[in-house]
Each structure stands twice: as structure tokens, then as C-alpha cells.
Amino acid sequence: MNKYKYMSLILLTTFLMGIAFPVGKIGLAYAPPFLLMGMRYIIAGGVLAWIVRRRPRPKGRKQWGQAAMIGWFQTAAVMGCVYYSMSWITSSESSILTSISPLIVIIISTVVMGASYSKRQWFGVLIGFIGVAFTFGFHLSLQPGTFICLAGAACFAAATLLIKRWGPSFDMTVLAAYQMLAGGLTLLVISLFTEPLYFIATFKSVGVLLVLALFCSIVQFSVWFYLLRSGDAAKTSSYLFLAPFFGVLTSWLLLGEQVKWYAAVGGVFICIGIIMVNKVSRARMPAAT
Question: What is the pTM of this model?
């Protein structure tokens, strides 16, 4: 893949990740979080599964189990935590907190999977994280939503590594479809037992649901899975630092959440961190089994 195509896809998927936060926040006025996310992913997974119906499906219990586990981490756990956290914190805060997953990817890769990263690469991720802190204004109120969102970031990191490890044996678009179905079904079950079931159907609420399902799910996951399969997990994940930048900007545009000067400074640090991570050689990681 040439660098221009790669960067275009990176910008597309991180923009869709970022805008999903304020759009989802709007949707919470019409449905509780687990139900909204469950509906989003059942619709998205169902549509995408129909689109790829002629492609090879997962084979045997092992592959179906792998697809389901990725769905539990990538869809149910991440999105469940992120949108549930918005009951306490803003969509900007949620998008920023979720972006620490690249740092978690490198920690897990090093401690658990035996990957080797240079000091410069570690420093680049830390610079990116400083950029996230700048974007947030170095102020973080510790509320239940804070810790719930951090748990979502850890699940995002775990899902990233699982996709990189198991993805080569799948058609990635098929995997995207079935992991969304597994995650969406899980979220609906959680919703059934934890929250009142309602959806206020209006033109606006249906529009929000369709944007989340078609663009922020089908397009975003398909592109993201393709990028993870095509490149190094940590290097690709480093671009997730762009998602909170887009999240903060679109939250300002759509929700009127205030954007301070330090968000621009944070964006500069984020870009520097991404450049430092991607200017080093590929991490050495054991072969998938």
C-alpha cells in the first residue's frame, strides 16, 4: 500500500472514530447507551454480512470463537464502556481517554507478547499522550465515567492485538461483519438486564442511528481492520491519537462543547508523537499461532 493511500485511509477512519463520540452523545437523548450501541451494531453487522455473503465465512468453532471474542472486546466492551461513560463525562473527554490505547498496545505487546520497541518509539507514544493531555487541558475530573472509559481503552488495545494476531486467517471485511454482530447481540443482552428499553423514533434519532451504523461502524471498522492487517499494530494504533482531536473538534461543532487554545497545542504534540513512532523500524513480535 502506498503512503498516500495509507494516510487517506488513516484520516478517514480516525475522523469517523472521532465524530462517533458527539453523534453518539446526541443519540443518548433518544435511547439508553447499551440499547443504542446494540442497535447500531446489529444493523451494521447485518448489512455488512449481507454485502459479503458470498465471501468465505469463518471456519469451525475456533474461527467463530475468535470472531466472537474480537466482537466482545472491540464492539461490546469498548463501545459499551465509552457510551456508558458519557452519563458522567463529555464526549470530548471520552474520545480523549479512549485514545490512550496505543500506549496500552505497546505495553501489552512488550510484556505479554514479547515484542521489542525502541526507546524512540516509546518516547513517541509518550509525546502523543502528552498531546492528549494538552488537548484535555491537563484537567481530568475523576468520576465513574473516567474509569469506565479507561477500561474501554484497555479493551480497545486488547482487540487491536487480537485482530493483528488472528486477522490474517480471515477475510477482514467478513470478520468486521461478524464481530459487530457478536458485539451488538451482547450489548442488547446487557441492555435487557441493566436499563429501561426505549427508543424515541424521530427523523433526527433515526438519522443518528444510521450515521453510527453505516459510516461510523461499517466504513470505519472495514477500513480499520484492513489497516491493522496491512501494517504493524503499534504503528497503526499510534494514529488513534488523531481520533480525540477530531472528537474534540466535532464535539465543538455539533454539541457546542468549548474548545480551548491548548487543544491546538495538543494536536501539534499528537502529530509529533505519531511521526516519531512511525519513523522507527517495525517492532519484532513472535509469529502468530
Answer: 0.79
pLDDT of 68-115, one tens digit each?
999 999 889 988 898 888 888 777 778 777 777 777 777 777 777 667
Q: What does the pLDDT look like over 193-211, one tens digit per residue? A: 999 999 999 999 999 999 9
Residue partners of 214: CB distance under 8 A and separation at least 6: 44, 47
On the 0-12 / 13-18 / 19+ scale of CB atoms within 10 A, 271 is middle
Indicate the DSSP class of residue 154.
H
Asked if 280 and 118 touch (Cβ cutoff 8 Å), the reply is yes
Per-residue confidence (pLDDT) for residue 55, from 0 to 100 = 92
The answer to whether 247 touches 93, Cβ cutoff 8 Å, is no
Residue 212 confidence (pLDDT):
94
Distance (Å) of CA 227 to CA 9, 137, 217, 232: 8, 31, 15, 9
Cell of 124: 513517541
Distance CA 274, CA 151 (A): 23
Q: Give the number of other Cβ atoms within 10 Å of residue 281's Cβ.
A: 11
Cβ–Cβ < 8 Å for 74, 172: no
3 state DSSP class of 53: coil
Q: Is 213 exposed, middle or buried (0-12, 13-18, 19+ CB in 10 A)?
A: buried
Rg of the chain on CA atoms, in Å: 18
Angle between helices 242-255 and 91-98 (to 10 degrees): 170
